[in-house]
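Table S2 (continued). Query chain:
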Amino acid sequence: MNVLLFLIPLALLLGALGLAAFVWSLNAGQYEDLEGAAARALSDDDVEDGR
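Corresponding output:
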């Protein structure tokens, strides 16, 4: 039972850190252009012909 006194605050701290990182990424504009990122992932601009 004593281990719960350590694990519960640790879990809450890690959850709060994850939430803070998510809110920071929202404010930094990481999710603004989702369609553009999908199109760039499928583009073949960096592939050479191989001739």
